[in-house]
Amino acid sequence: MKRQEGNEKVVLYCRVSTDEQAKEGVSLDEQRTRLKAYCVAMGWKVEAEEIIDDGYSAKDMDRPGLKRLISQVESGTVSRVLVTKLDRLSRRLLDLLTLIDVFAHHEVSFVSTSESFDTETPSGRLTLQVLGAVAEFERERIRERVVDNMVHAAKSGKWLTQHPYGYRLVEKQLVVHDSEADVVKRVYDMFLNQGMGYFAIAKQLNEEGLSSRQGKQWSNRSVKLMLTNPVYKGTLAWNRTDSSKKKRKTKEEGEWIMIPNALPVIINKEIWDKVNEKISGKPQIPPRAKSSPHLLGGLLKCGKCGSSMSICWSGWPKRHRVYRCSAYKNYGTCDSKPYRADKVEGWFIEGLKNLVDSVDQTIREVVISQVHDQNVQKQEQKLRNAKGRYERKVEAYTAGLIELSDLMEEKRRFDEEIGRSGELQGSFDEDAVNKVLAGLRERYTSFSESVGVLPIPELKKLLHIIVSKVVLLRDSDIEISLVI
Predict the structure, then answer these.
(1) Contacts of 37 (CB under 8 A, 6+ apart)
(2) Where's the Recombinase domain (predicted)?
(3) Please, which of 300, 315, 344, 412 could form a disulfide with 309 given CB 3.0 to 4.6 Å?
(4) Nearest-angstrom CA–CA distance, 197 and 220
């Protein structure tokens, strides 16, 4: 709703965060006094309402007072919004510009008394964008210093958050809690050796009356988090996720802090690695399996429990090769039967041929999705680079090293990169998809022409280029995962 004629109410917005309470010049009383004096000096004989956010940070817009302010602006009952400093309203440029856009749409001017500008003027709007960038830059610098301190603590082996299940925290050091550690070992055994999935494990623990670290029932998610947490193999992992926004996002691996052998071990590293290979579906094929004289050695998985299937010998007096589930052979925990190796390899070759022949119909959508994701990742990297260049220009402008026109030119380039990112969301790169599909057919052709010609170890090198995993479900029923 546009502002109604005759509504001349001025809102005085004041905010302090907890860590600013003791700082000179930012107290709520000080802000009120300055804003009221400004109204008197400007001769505004109008109604003035105070909206206060006491103890709230300006890192986001989740503040009760700010929400009430926006609601009043949108209702058309406000003519001006006053603050003592720009960062009282927001320290994030994106949030700040969003608020200014809301004010402009409802014909409400925004005034900062310390910076002496009014958004009703073009120079005021330009200054606002520059100061907003500086305010956001200062906040990021503060955050970097905090993160640096936490990185130092993490590298010294100190635990920085709540203790995980199986441990207790004593003077910022993890110590093993024996009874919970036994449960952790059982969970890993149930998943790796007993063929139980997340749901079955959670159900078993709940039926036994065991509770999670938070005292709640176990769920699929809590079981998976336990199975994938590197703390249990003694590795300290920190800074893997960005929690600065509402939606947590995994950071790039180069930013992770991973310190092996820094914590008490509950799960042997070899067992932890096997569990996570099984979870990821991308096992690291041992060198011995790569050079074995059996075509599917290191690739074939049991359809019943997910364990690897290895070669055994059967029959007398004429012996023949069979693929048998290693969980049955080593632990007796799977009832999968043995399969003749020559038949399994025949089913596989036929299935691979049919899969690649029908590649356009079968996996085209998968390829489209993957190509799109790769393009998005590239554009996100370009956007991060553009943001970095812009922030460096903000720093240079703040230090007086460049002119305002240089900063605004960099801002224009940054905005263009943001626009390209938005355009990419709905785009479709037909040429890139066709190139991937053509490469897939070419790799299969090379493999199929080599069957019966090259020795098995050489043939497997070609096979590992196009196939990541093979699951034997039942007679002549095979699931093949391609490397796309």
Answers:
(1) none
(2) 164-286
(3) 300
(4) 9
Q: Report d(CA 472, CA 344) in Å as an integer.
A: 8
Residue type, 84: T
198 and 135 housed in the same domain: no
Domain total for the chain?
3
Active-site amino acid positions: 17
Cα distances from 374 to residues 255, 339, 368, 378, 416, in angstroms, run 20, 39, 10, 6, 20
Tens-digit pLDDT profile for residues 89-134? 888 777 887 888 888 888 898 888 887 667 777 777 777 677 667 6
CA-to-CA distance for 254 and 299, rounded, in angstroms? Answer: 30
Residue from 439, 431, 451, 449 nearest 482 by CA: 439
Q: Are 294 and 321 in contact (CB under 8 A)?
A: yes
447 and 300 belong to one structural domain:
yes
pLDDT confidence band for 22 (50 / 70 / 90):
very low
Q: Give the model's pLDDT for residue 136.
A: 67
For every residue of 164-206, DSSP letters joined together read PTTEEEETTEEEE-HHHHHHHHHHHHHHHTS---HHHHHHHHH
